[in-house]
User: Which sequence fits this backbone?
């Protein structure tokens, strides 16, 4: 699994592996933040003054093309004013449509099933309005105990909104595996036990703390068999793994675009509504941009939703925020999901191998070992006394190795296949080892 025999913990091996990587040129399409330190200059092959950026799980890096894409929109605005809606280089009126196809490709959906709009938490609320329809008998929501706070706040507030009490209605699944991760069996047991009173199951595609991948199709089948609606938060899955949202059968999904999708801070998020709901008369919070496109500008008093995910749009789209998403999705399209996953598996396997063979006395990997149960991220727990983890994290940052820190003892590192290299993984291991020796 991780003990692939051809790995080696030295620079010539890592550099040769990078040189043979067909996706290596994509790194050149990104702006890698600089890092200046005398130590790094002395480090030979690594002395390029760039960070070892392994934080794409938190904020992806800026594609070089993003700046010009934004300037294009500013220029169209300056030169065409309102006419840019129709005559711009990328006309604003149908702008969200030019991200639709690549977005659908990215998450394995039909084009009409996806829309880029709002932010993740807003989209989650819009979806809950339509898909959490509690009755007296069936009013519970199943989430995981270590759910991302925003997801928890969203479902708790929706439960209150419907007049129920989260203390009795919110069911939280605790991890049952040694590392605190959650087995499929535990999900199946919870559904067996509580399924008849669960209205909605909300789980992640990739768990943000542990990096665990969830099997969307299997969970959907289990939950649907009990009559529950199923939604997924794909914040850490979109752009990290190939997804097959349509085939998974889930009812809805939401994700953000500033993590693996490299679309900039607070970028426009994504939303998926399965085709079977395209024309359903679900209750929803409506706005004029969700109105049937052919009659939208007749400005009539009666809301008629556009079929598909577009029907959940509220406002006309923020063009300046969509431009970076358009650039990013073009990169993903050219790189290709299969090739990205292939490289990602090798890159993360190499990092895991380095940790297990060189650093096992310093850190342990929390993320599941099976390649199909993880994306690119590894979550590490630091051994040793309290405070050691934070000290190691600060040491890494001071040496230009950027991961992120989650209280109380977790460092997350995410080598992403678009811009990370095998030499980055080696550099991480070298810096951790040097910290321990010091
Ligand atoms: C990053 C993340 C969010 C962030 O929500 P925003 O609305 O984009 O601020 C929500 N949920 C999960 C699981 C996340 O990882």
Assistant:
């Amino acid at each position: 699994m991780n003990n692939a025999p051809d790995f080696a913990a030295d620079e010539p091996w890592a550099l040769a592996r990078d040189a043979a990587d067909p996706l290596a040129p994509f790194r050149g399409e990104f702006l890698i933040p600089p890092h200046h330190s005398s130590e790094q200059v002395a480090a030979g092959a690594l002395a390029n003054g760039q960070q070892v950026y392994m934080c794409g799980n938190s904020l992806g890096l800026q594609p070089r093309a993003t700046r010009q894409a934004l300037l294009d929109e500013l220029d169209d605005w300056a030169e065409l004013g309102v006419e840019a809606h129709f005559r711009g280089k990328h006309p604003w009126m149908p702008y969200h449509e030019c991200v639709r196809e690549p977005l659908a490709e990215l998450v394995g959906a039909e084009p009409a099933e996806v829309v880029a709009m709002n932010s993740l938490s807003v989209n989650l609320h819009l979806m809950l309005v339509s898909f959490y329809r509690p009755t007296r008998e069936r009013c519970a929501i199943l989430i995981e105990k270590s759910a991302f706070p925003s997801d928890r706040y969203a479902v708790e507030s929706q439960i209150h909104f419907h007049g129920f009490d989260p203390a009795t209605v919110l069911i939280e699944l605790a991890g049952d595996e040694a590392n605190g991760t959650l087995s499929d069996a535990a999900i199946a047991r919870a559904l067996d036990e509580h399924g008849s009173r669960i209205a909605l199951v909300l789980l992640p595609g990739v768990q943000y703390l542990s990096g665990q991948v969830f099997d969307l199709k299997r969970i959907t089948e289990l939950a649907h068999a009990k009559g529950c609606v199923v939604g997924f938060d794909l914040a850490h899955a979109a752009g990290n793994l190939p997804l097959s949202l349509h085939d998974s059968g889930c009812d809805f999904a939401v994700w953000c675009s500033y993590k693996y999708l490299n679309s900039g801070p607070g970028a426009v998020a994504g939303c998926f509504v399965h085709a079977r709901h395209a024309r359903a008369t679900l209750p929803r919070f409506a706005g004029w941009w969700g109105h049937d496109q052919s009659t939208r500008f007749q400005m009539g008093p009666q809301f008629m939703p556009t079929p598909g995910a577009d029907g959940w749009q509220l406002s006309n789209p923020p063009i300046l925020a969509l431009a970076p998403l358009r650039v990013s999705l073009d990169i993903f399209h050219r790189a290709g999901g299969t090739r990205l996953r292939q490289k990602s598996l090798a890159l993360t396997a190499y990092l895991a191998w380095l940790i297990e063979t060189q650093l096992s006395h310093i850190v342990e990997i929390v993320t599941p070992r099976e390649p199909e149960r993880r994306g690119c991220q590894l979550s590490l727990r630091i051994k040793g006394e309290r405070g050691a983890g934070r000290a190691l994290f600060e040491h890494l940052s001071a040496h230009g190795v950027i991961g992120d820190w989650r209280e109380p003892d977790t460092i997350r590192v995410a080598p992403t296949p678009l811009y990370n290299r095998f030499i980055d993984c080696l550099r991480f291991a070298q810096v951790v080892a040097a910290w321990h020796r010091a």
Notes: Residues 49 and 372 are 34 Å apart (CA to CA).
